What does this fold into?
Amino acid sequence: MKCSGIDALTGSPVEIHFGDAIHRVTPAAPEPGDYIAPGWIDIQVNGFAGVDYNQPDAPHSEIARSIHALFATGVTRFYPTVITGAPDDMESALRNLSRAKDSLPEGDAIEGFHVEGPHIGIEDGPRGAHPKRWVRKPDFDEFRRWQDATANRIRIVTLSPEWPEAPHYIERVVAEGAVASIGHTSATAGQIADAVSAGASLSTHLGNGAHAVMRRHPNYIWDQLAEDRLMADFIVDGIHLGASFLIAALRAKGIERSVLVTDAAAPAGAAPGRYYLGEQAVDLTPDNRVVLAGQDKLAGSALRMDHGVQNLMRMAGLPLADAVRMATVNAARAGRVSGRANGLTVGDRADFVQFRWDAEARGIEVTATWISGRRVH
It folds into this structure.
């Protein structure tokens, strides 16, 4: 099979020949048309299109519907994310998602799983919207139960290094092939340094899951921005982060260590109203904020990846190539997504998104999505 377009990473017209992987990439005649890029990778998705991935009994038909909705936004691989909850509920949700991956035709889009918590900071602010009663210290036996429930598909674990058990836990998780990511933390500089030395390699939605007021310096945001061994992902919905912080953070990390993530919850891609994030009710407000019901506390986002790419250009002034890089090859490196780290090159998976791009408005309209050479949208 073949398809063509303007390579969003290079700006050059290309023709791509592929099966389930890319066989050949050749120059194409320059002519107006769609852009083509590696398919988006979202390493943190709590739910989408009204479906909460934290529900142990989420119907597989509904999970399939939500994946099709993700395809329409250009997503080709993603990590369903289970947040802090009761041990049995977290394990059951992961087992249900793993069974969905194995049984659904759409399941190949599920690259693995991200567990955000429960080993996070317990203080208000750093804990974010995670239920306080289920926060607990790192426990490798619990991690092994998650692995058993998912056929060893846990790919990212977000935790706070402030727990005394954290460095040893991180060493063991990394040895299992998972990414240890720092998030929802009030850790000191020393604790963050120890976590990185133990193998932590990512910061989860940096700039969020933090105190509303903190010391100007030092603090755990600056410590992570300054650590070159950490990649960082950012929720670029215009709500979670202001433009000035985003611009400064991207300059600190450099584009090569920066990743776009949605942290989407069930209301993403759905109408305003009441939904759930695990055991907690959440509301999607008319201004597109996802908050704990009856409160003003953010509880995930309603962001889509295609809109996130647009927002990187609009808010941070990035060129198209850098915004696409954060949504594709950088996300693959941060989340260790196999076969996706090089872009539109021979040998990488045939995961593509084709889109129209309005350069003046910096707007994207997804026209087609391909996974392993199969058109899914």
The chain has one domain: 39-342. The mean pLDDT is 97. The radius of gyration is 19 Å. The domain at 39-342 is CATH 3.20.20.140 (TIM Barrel).
